Amino acid sequence: MNSVNLYSIVSDYLKIFNDESEDLTLLKTQLKIRERLNDRKNFHGHIASAAIVLSPDKTKLLVVHHKFFDDWYLPGGHWEHDENDPQIAARREAIEETGVNIAESLSYASATENIPLDIVTYPYSARPEKDEPFHYHHDFRYIFRARNSKLKAQMSEVNECAWVDFGDEKLKNIARVIKKLQKFHVI
Q1: Based on C-alpha coordinates, what's the Rg of the chain?
Q2: pTM score
């Protein structure tokens, strides 16, 4: 995906969540100067995608216990070089990490499916074993509904995957996502 298309997604997102503009200053700057944001070797900052996967009846959320961070998060990760859409990357990562069978993408409010429910920029610690210095991830988070509740964790990346209730302590790292799901009556 080129920077013009990403700029359009971020602009449309900020029309809905205009109070988050300051939080996305680095992302907006990188888009303005047309940095390659789908290149994971861009250590200024690059795009990652995450999947907000709801159970078939929308009463639970899928989370993974991440090996590197040693905590619970949404399934997600980096774009592959042949991917041109952050939503495609989010779907692929969820399937790879958890074995979930995705039934559909969900939109919220009047947003199209291509506009994420959440975009967050966060610091990513250096990983010398991967020759990666400290950098930032711009995480584009998309909503999906699962076809069934069967899961199979990819043990090379996650310790465990689970369906959890929306009040569960495991969701503390994504409380903002839960509030947005509630605000737009997705759950």
Answers
A1: 16
A2: 0.94
- Shortest CA distance to 159 belongs to which of 50, 32, 66? 66
Helix (H) or strand (E) holding 164: strand 158-165
Q: Which residues contact 82 (CB under 8 A, 6 or more apart)?
A: none
Residue-wise pLDDT for 132-141, tens only, equals: 899 999 999 9
- Coil, strand or helix at 74: coil
What is the rounded distance in angstroms from the CA atom of residue 108 to the CA atom of residue 184? 6
pLDDT tens for residues 47-76?
999 999 999 999 999 999 998 889 999 999
- Classify residue 55 by its DSSP letter: P
| H, E, C per residue of 77-135 | EECCCCCCCHHHHHHHHHHHHHCCCEEEEECCCCCCCCCCCEEEEEEECCEHHHCECCE
